[in-house]
Specification:
Elements: H1 6-10, E1 14-23, E2 26-28, E3 31-36, E4 39-45, H2 46-52, E5 58-68, E6 70-75, H3 94-103, H4 107-123, E7 126-131, H5 141-150, E8 153-159, H6 168-184, E9 191-197, H7 205-218, E10 222-226, H8 230-240, H9 244-250, E11 258-262, H10 268-277, E12 280-283, H11 285-291, H12 298-304, E13 307-310, H13 319-338, H14 347-353, H15 355-360, E14 378-382, H16 394-400, E15 407-412, E16 415-419, H17 428-445, H18 455-462
Parallel strand pairs: 1-5, 6-7, 7-8, 8-9, 9-10, 10-11, 11-12, 12-13
Antiparallel strand pairs: 1-2, 1-3, 3-4, 5-14, 14-15, 15-16
Helix pairs in contact: 4-5, 4-17, 6-7
Length: 465
């Protein structure tokens, strides 16, 4: 059995013949892809592609699956220095942890934090991330530069407004800056501009409407946290007399341009609003487990035809663990009560983590699937491991048994970005070392407030043995 090398995968053009190819309809054998100029130039039976491209030497990837790269539909790239600070904390930690932590960043540390998160995402099999907008006091372009330098595709959110008391003149200035952000990345290879608002209740109705209008007119995605925590729902009811999603609808901001994060607390009426409006949701199961009040009814969304992707919320950049969590959360929250033993049959979560996730973040015509003309954003996954011997049902196995340690290569826009977990064209180890040092400095001076101490100290205080 021959083993692939970086040169095999990074050649342009290249004719790749994996043992298994994961297409939209499922895994197939004896198929191949031609990668050229950053896209899949051809996809089809291996014999036919070999005949049609005699100038290319077939690269046989024995023991490997070639599959679409995963899409993280909700991330916070500039929170990577404080990921474990959220462990064991009650909900709505953004006021106590994320606002002070990101507020302590400068341009250098913002870049380091975002690039570190991008590297983690690539290592976990994500080729695209949707960055929901940083609170760091720097230009959004710093985050875009970090993502592009790391080599990941990024839907880059620019926060338009985070203060419900913003006067009209300041709101108009914020929209002008948002327009500049959209123009700056209009033709960028890897960075795709997006607009962002923290929550519906954080913006006056006129700002919601104006931002949504700008998103609709420009074809940009508007990212916003919706119905995540009980406190947020109650705050919206007190301030606006409506639940967050209802408030968006009343403001004319609910439509196909919207990417709502979390949506864990939805009434039947709000599910209907989502379906009828064509809005998309990021289902973030790990965030629900770590710091949430509830689990989004993703199985019901899938059945109703509501658009959604899977997001990490910056919890951990591991795509295989994310799809496992997506299925597990649905089974524990809903399936056990109804006797649903399949909870989407495995393939549902793969679809929403790839092709349908790309649609949710506004890139459905560009990435998320292995098809002619789509961006060559893909993974090579080692199948020759004990966990998959023998293999009976690969989609289910990818959800429940596969791990990021099996990822041999990560390719974005036709370029090899990682080989066995590390970049070959820049020093990932040096980045980790620098980020660890700077991150500790940031954490030491940021006015973070935690309910619980570190786990070791907590154990000592509790008297556990």
């Amino acid at each position: 059995m021959s083993k692939p090398t970086p040169d095999h995968v990074d050649a342009d053009p290249s004719l790749l013949v994996p043992e298994v190819l994961l297409l939209a309809d499922g895994p197939v054998r004896d198929h191949a892809v031609v990668v050229a100029d950053g896209v899949f130039a051809a996809v089809g039976p291996a014999g036919r592609l070999v005949r049609e491209h005699p100038h290319l030497t077939p690269v046989h990837l024995d023991g490997h699956l070639l599959m679409p790269g995963f899409v993280d539909a909700h991330h916070h790239l500039t929170q990577s220095f404080g990921s474990s600070l959220a462990f064991g904390e009650p909900s709505e930690i953004f006021r106590r942890v994320w606002v002070p932590l990101e507020g302590a960043l400068n341009e250098e540390s913002t870049y380091l934090s975002a690039k570190l998160a991008a590297l983690e995402s690539l290592r976990g099999g994500f080729t695209t991330v949707a960055e929901a907008g940083t609170r760091a006091p720097v230009d959004t372009g710093v985050v875009g530069r970090a993502a592009a330098d790391a080599g990941i595709r990024c839907v880059l959110g620019h926060v338009v407004c985070s203060d419900p008391d913003t006067p009209p003149r300041a709101a108009a200035d914020a929209l002008a800056l948002a327009e500049k952000h959209l123009s700056r990345y209009e033709h960028h290879d890897l960075v795709h501009p997006s607009l962002a608002l923290p929550t519906p209740e954080s913006a006056p109705e006129r700002t919601l409407r104006a931002t949504a209008d700008l998103a609709r007119e420009t074809g940009a995605v508007l990212q916003i946290h919706v119905n995540e925590h009980l406190a947020g729902v109650e705050r919206s009811l007190l301030q606006h007399g409506r639940r967050p999603l209802e408030y968006l609808h009343a403001a004319g901001a609910l439509g196909p341009w919207l990417l709502g994060a979390h949506a864990t607390l939805l009434t039947p009426r709000e599910l209907t609003l989502l379906r009828e409006s064509g809005a998309a949701i990021s289902y973030n199961p790990v965030a629900s487990a770590w710091k949430g009040n509830a689990v989004a009814p993703a199985s019901a969304m899938a059945e109703a035809g509501i658009r959604f992707g899977l997001g990490t919320d910056g919890t951990r950049g591991d795509a295989f663990r994310l799809v496992d969590a997506a299925e597990t959360a649905q089974r524990l929250a809903f399936g056990l009560h109804t006797g649903d033993s399949s909870c989407g049959g495995g393939w549902t979560w793969l679809e929403h983590a790839t092709r349908l996730g790309a649609d949710a973040v506004g890139l459905g015509s560009l990435t998320g699937t292995i098809a002619q003309g789509r961006a060559a954003d893909f993974l090579l996954v080692d199948l020759a491991v004990p966990e998959l011997a023998p293999s009976w049902d690969l989609p289910w196995e990818l959800v429940r048994l596969t791990g990021r340690d099996q990822i041999t290569a990560v390719v974005v826009a036709g370029r090899l970005r990682l080989w066995r977990g590390w970049p070959l064209d820049w020093d990932g180890h040096a980045l980790v070392e620098t980020a660890a040092r700077v991150g500790r400095e940031i954490g030491a001076r940021a006015p973070v407030t935690r309910v619980h101490p570190t786990s070791t100290e907590h154990r000592t205080r509790s008297g556990s043995r």
